[in-house]
TrEMBL record:
Pfam families: ACT (PF01842), CM_2 (PF01817), PDT (PF00800). CDD domains: ACT_CM-PDT, PBP2_PDT_1. Residues 1-28 form a coiled coil. Its EC number is 4.2.1.51, 5.4.99.5. The lineage of its organism: Bacteria, Pseudomonadati, Pseudomonadota, Gammaproteobacteria, Pseudomonadales. It catalyses: chorismate = prephenate; prephenate + H(+) = 3-phenylpyruvate + CO2 + H2O. It comes from Marinobacter flavimaris. Residues 2-96 form the Chorismate mutase domain. GO terms for biological process: chorismate metabolic process; L-phenylalanine biosynthetic process. This is Bifunctional chorismate mutase/prephenate dehydratase.
C-alpha cells in the first residue's frame, strides 16, 4: 500500500467514527424534540398546539451561525441545522406549507429554504388561494412573495392583508438567478419565442434587449409554466430558475441573466398565530390616515422620536374610497417591546385604522 492509501484509510476510519457519533447525537436530538411535542400536547389538551416555533428556530440558527468554529461557513452550518430541525419538527408534526405554485417556482425554493425539506409543500395557483388555504386551516402556513429588489412590491400580497385575518410569522430572502433555458430534446433549433413570468422578463429586460433583441416574448403565469412549455415546444426557450430547469430537464443556454447581480426576492410566511419575540425581530403594520396636510409626517414622526428603524414604507390605494391611502410599514422591533408599544399607541390615536400584521424574526438564512 502506498503512503497515500494508508493515510486515506486512516482519515476515512476517522470520518466513519465521527459519522457514527453525529448519527447518535442527531437521534438523541430527535428524541428530545419528540419529548417537546409530548410536553406541548399535555400542556394544551384539546387545543391547537403550535409545534412550529419560528422564534425558537431563529434563535437556534443564529446561535449556530455565531458559534460555528469553521472550516464550514456559518451559512453552510446553519443550512445543515435547518434540515436537522426540519426533520425533528416533522417527527413532532408534519407541516403542510401552501405556496404560490406550480412546483418549481422560486416561492417553493423559498419555502424549502425557510422550513427545510421535511415539510409537505402544497402548490396553489394564486396568492389569494394561499391565504385561503391557511385561513381555512387546510395548510399550517403559507409562503407568498412580497417584494423584489429590482421590480419593487408585489401589490397583490400587500392588498390581501387588508382583508385577511392572517399574521406574518416570518420572512425569507432568496437570491434570484434567472437562466435562458432550452430543451436538449429539440437540438440546435433556432429560438423564435421566449416564455417567462412578467416579473422575470422585467428583471432580465436589458440582457434580453442586448442579446435576444426582436425575439417574441410571451408572458405566462409562472417561471415553472414557462419551463414546462419550453420542454414541450421546439423552437422555444424559457427564462426560469434552477428548480424549474431541473424539474423539466432543461439546459442553460445562458446563465444568471438577471440585470442586477443582487436581484433578491423577499417572501413572507403567513400563519394563524402571533409569534413571540426572538430578540431580533421586525414588525409590519397597515395604517390608513386621514387625508390632511402633514398626515405622513405625523405618522412617521413617532418612529423617529423613539428611534425605531423603518425598513419599508409603501402606499396603496384604500379599497374604501377614492384618494384615500393605506400605508404598509415594516420596522425593526417586536410589538411586545416597550418602545414599539408607545409608538403604536401614538399612531393609533391619529390613524383612521391601524392593523397589526405581526412581529416575526428577521430572516436568518
Ligand atoms: O423547541 C421547540 O419548541 C421544538 O419543538 C424543537 C424544535 C427543534 O428541533 O429544535 C423543533 C421545532 C420547532 O419549530 C422549534 C424547535
Amino acid at each position: 500500500m502506498s503512503d497515500e492509501q494508508v493515510r486515506l484509510g486512516e482519515l476515512r476510519d476517522e470520518i466513519d467514527q465521527l459519522d457514527q457519533k453525529i448519527m447518535e447525537l442527531i437521534s438523541a436530538r430527535a428524541a428530545c424534540a419528540q419529548e417537546v411535542a409530548h410536553v406541548k400536547m399535555t400542556a394544551n389538551p384539546g387545543q391547537d398546539v403550535f409545534f412550529y416555533r419560528p422564534e425558537r428556530e431563529a434563535q437556534v440558527l443564529r446561535r449556530i451561525k455565531e458559534q460555528n468554529p469553521g472550516p464550514l461557513s456559518g451559512e453552510e452550518m446553519a443550512r445543515l441545522f435547518r434540515e436537522i430541525m426540519s426533520a425533528c419538527l416533522a417527527l413532532e408534526k408534519p407541516m403542510h406549507i401552501a405556496f404560490l405554485g406550480p412546483i418549481g417556482t422560486f416561492t417553493q425554493a423559498a419555502a424549502l429554504k425557510h422550513f427545510g425539506h421535511s415539510v409537505v409543500s402544497v402548490p396553489l395557483p394564486a396568492i389569494d388561494a394561499v391565504f385561503r388555504e391557511v385561513e381555512s386551516g387546510a395548510a399550517h402556513y403559507g409562503v407568498v412573495p412580497v417584494e423584489n429588489s429590482t421590480e419593487g412590491m408585489i401589490n397583490h400580497t400587500l392588498d390581501m392583508f387588508m382583508s385577511s385575518p392572517l399574521k406574518i410569522c416570518g420572512e425569507v430572502q432568496l437570491r434570484i438567478h434567472h437562466h435562458l433555458l432550452v430543451s436538449p430534446k429539440h437540438g440546435d433549433q433556432e429560438i423564435t419565442r421566449i416564455y417567462s413570468h412578467q416579473q422575470s422578463f422585467a428583471q432580465c429586460r436589458q440582457w434580453l434587449d442586448t442579446h435576444r433583441y426582436g425575439i417574441e416574448r410571451v408572458t405566462v403565469s409562472s417561471n415553472a409554466e414557462a419551463a414546462r412549455r419550453a420542454a414541450e415546444e421546439p423552437g422555444t426557450a424559457a427564462i426560469a430558475g434552477d428548480m424549474a430547469a431541473e424539474l423539466y430537464g432543461l439546459q442553460k443556454l445562458a446563465n444568471s441573466i438577471e440585470d442586477r447581480p443582487d436581484n433578491t426576492t423577499r417572501f413572507l410566511i403567513i400563519g394563524r398565530e402571533e409569534v413571540p419575540a426572538s430578540g431580533h425581530d421586525k414588525s409590519s403594520i397597515l395604517v390608513s390616515m386621514r387625508n390632511k396636510p402633514g398626515a405622513l409626517y405625523q405618522l412617521l414622526e413617532p418612529f423617529h422620536r423613539h428611534g425605531l428603524s423603518l425598513t419599508r414604507i409603501e402606499t396603496r390605494p384604500s379599497p374604501s374610497g377614492t384618494w384615500a391611502y393605506v400605508f404598509y410599514i415594516d420596522f425593526e422591533g417586536h410589538m411586545e417591546d416597550e418602545q414599539v408599544r408607545k409608538v403604536l399607541a401614538e399612531v393609533d390615536e391619529e390613524a383612521v385604522e391601524l392593523k397589526r400584521l405581526g412581529s416575526y424574526p428577521i430572516g436568518v438564512l
